[in-house]
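re the bet — no i am not wrong, look at it urself. input seq straight from the record:
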Amino acid sequence: MNIVCLDMEGVLVPEIWIAFSEASGIPELRRTTRDEPDYDKLMQYRLAILKEHGLGLKEIQEVIGTIDPLPGAREFLDELRSITQVLILSDTFTQFAMPLMKKLGYPTLFCNELIVGEGGEISGYKMRCSQSKLTTVKALQSCGFETIASGDSHNDLGMIRASKAGFLFKSTEAIKAENPDLPAFEEFDELLAAIKMVL
């Protein structure tokens, strides 16, 4: 039994923090897991910047409301889900992801939760589990699934390498150069064809 595990941001939808960086005019918020492998360090950095500028969940959600999935993402997901089970594994947060999941036809999503104060300030976050993508892939394998994984960032490499097949998708030149053994694709039809070959 196969299950395909996909990253969300950078793969199916634009990077939320980059979109918010552009909307808010705060270039420091462009930093993502493509740049910083340590997710906790990255989130502490982001939360400090939000606090410094007096920004909270409401402002971020307003920007998320303007974001659409990447061109072809919905069609890719629909076709993939018609032939196999699909799970979106993301280090984003429920409070960010749900409007985007609606636009993608509500695929199954495992992600994290923000801790939000009464005034809308983001005071912290709760990770679903340690190394959430790799841990989830291993748990699925322990249940009898064979996993196929794809993502674009440092935090996707664990699940990609632990799976029976794994692919980089819309990744950076640096990550591709550091992982020359991993097939890398830029277009959804290429990724779909590669997944079909190993199903």
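see?? Residues 2-13+70-112+128-198 form a domain with the Rossmann fold fold (CATH 3.40.50.1000). told u. also The CA atoms of residues 46 and 53 lie 11 Å apart. so pay up
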